[in-house]
Amino acid sequence: MTSPLYEPVKDCLTRHFNLDAGQIHPESTLEGLGLDSLALVEFSCVLQDEVGLAPLAGTDTPADIGTMTLTQFVTALEELQHRTATPEAETPAPTTQAPS
Fold first, then answer.
1. How far is CA 88 from CA 43, 79, 83, 84, in A?
2. How big, in percent rounded to 5, are the helix, strand and coil portions of the chain?
3. Which helix (H) or strand (E) holds 74?
4. pLDDT digits (tens, 9 = 90+) for 44-61
5. pLDDT, tens only, 68-82
6. pTM of this prediction?
7. What is the Cα–Cα distance from 69 to 46, expressed in whole angstroms?
């Protein structure tokens, strides 16, 4: 996996969930690594603290995040990172005219 986010994600998994780095592969799923729904929430918090992204904080987070491969998960994180880094176009304040 060539994404710059892959290694930080893998590192979070090994340090916080006592996983052996050798068992984590790009095609591994989070559920396959033993993360249940509570662990996925914890993982989201860890990623928020360490990487600055919280995959479970968005309203458009896929419900099947546990069954995503790490490749798919990292791709989703990259998309989240891109969306949060791209400033929304600011809506100009409405102008009011003074009464005549």
1. 28, 15, 9, 9
2. 45, 0, 50
3. helix 70-85
4. 888 888 888 777 665 445
5. 899 998 988 888 778
6. 0.72
7. 19
